[in-house]
Amino acid sequence: MSLSARQPPQLHRLAAFTSRADGGNPAGVWVGAALPEAAAMQRLATAVGFSETVFLSPQHGPQRQVRYFSPAGEVPFCGHATIAAAVLLAETGPGRSFVFHTPVGAVPVQVAEREGVLQASLTSVEPRQAPAADPLVAAALEALGWQAEELDPALPPMKAYAGAWHLVLAAATAERLARLQYAFEPLKALMLREDLLTLQLVWRQDRQLFHSRNPFPVGGVVEDPATGSAAAALGGYLRAAGLIPVPATLEIRQGEAMGRPSQLLVTVPATGGIVVSGGAVRLPAGN
Q1: pTM over 0.90
Q2: 111: which residues sit within 8 A by CB, 6+ positions away?
Q3: Residue 1 within any structural domain of the chain
Q4: Using one digit for the tens of pLDDT, what is the confidence trace for 107-145?
Q5: How many Cα atoms within 13 Å fall on the side-chain side of residue 261?
Q6: DSSP characters over the chain
Q7: Does 115 share its domain with 251?
Q8: Residue 17 is part of which domain span?
Q9: 34-43, pLDDT tens digit by residue?
Q10: Which of 58, 87, 122 is the last residue of a domain?
Q11: Are residues 208 and 242 in the same domain?
Q12: What is the C-alpha separation between 174 and 151, in angstroms, rounded?
C-alpha cells in the first residue's frame, strides 16, 4: 500500500547510511496528510529521541513538504533523515524519485536498488563557505580540548554550508580524531552564537577517504553517527578550495567510535549541489 494523503499519520523508525539496523544514524520519519503544528512536531521529536525526526506531507505527485526537528529544536536541513524518508517512500509507494521542499529549498532525491538494498541519493542546495575567524576557531578548539598544532594544515578551518552551517576542522592524525571529549555547554553556546549545526571534525586517510565525528550539542545530542548535511558541506568546501579534482567521489566513514558504523558516499560535480548517497533500513520494534 502506498503512503497517501488518505492514510492516517504514521511514524516510522529507520537507520540511515547503513545496511544494518545496528549501524548508521537512526531517524524518525513521520508521514501524514498535513504537517502538524510546530509544537506538536517538537514534542514528537523529543519523545522519539533520535538526533532528528523528519515530517513529510504530500504536495502533489512526488513533491513533499518537509520539516526536521531534533530533540532540542527545529533544524533547517537533515541529510540522514532525508535518506531514511526517501527509502521509506520508495519501499511503500510506486515512485523512486522525489523532491523534498525543505526550509532551505528544494532537495531532489533519487532511490535505486543496489545489491538488493535500497539506497537514496540527495542533491543538496547550492553549497557555500565563509571564513572561520581566528576567535571562532580558538574557542572551538578550547571547548574540544584540541591544540592548533593538532590540525591538518592542508585542510584549513572553514565554515561550510549545504543546507546548514558546519565548522570544518581537520585533525592531523587519526589518534587526535579518536579522542573526542568536549565541554558540552560551552561548545553549544558557541555554536548557537555562530549558527552552526554541527562541527565537522575529519581526518583524511587518503584523497578519497575521510573519517568524521560530529558533535551536535545544539540538537541535544553529544555526537551524531552520520551527518549527511555536513558531508555535503564538506564536499562543497573541498571543491571551492581547490583541494580535490572535480568531478570527484568521496567516502566518509562516521559513527565507528560510537558502535554505529556509517558510510556516506559523496559525489562532487564541477558545479551545483553536492550529491550524498547511502542506504537505510527499518529498525526493529522497540528501537
Answers
A1: yes
A2: 86, 87, 89, 90, 96, 97, 98, 118, 119, 120, 121
A3: no
A4: 999 999 988 889 999 999 999 999 999 999 999 999 999
A5: 5
A6: ----TTSPPEEEEEEES-SSTTSSEEEEEEE-SSPPPHHHHHHHHHHH-SSEEEEEEE-STTEEEEEEE-SSSEES--HHHHHHHHHHHHHHSS--EEEEEETTEEEEEEEEEETTEEEEEEEPSPPEEEE--HHHHHHHHHHHT--GGGB-TTS--EEEESSSEEEEEEBSSHHHHH-----HHHHHHHHHHHT-SEEEEEEESSSSEEEEEEEEGGGTEEEES--HHHHHHHHHHHHHTT-S-SSEEEEEEESGGGT--EEEEEEE-SSSPPEEEEEEEEPPTT-
A7: no
A8: 10-122
A9: 999 999 999 9
A10: 122
A11: yes
A12: 11
Q: And the C-alpha cell for 179?
A: 579522542
Take residue 229 and report the three cell numbers written for it: 548535511
- For the chain, the residue count is 287
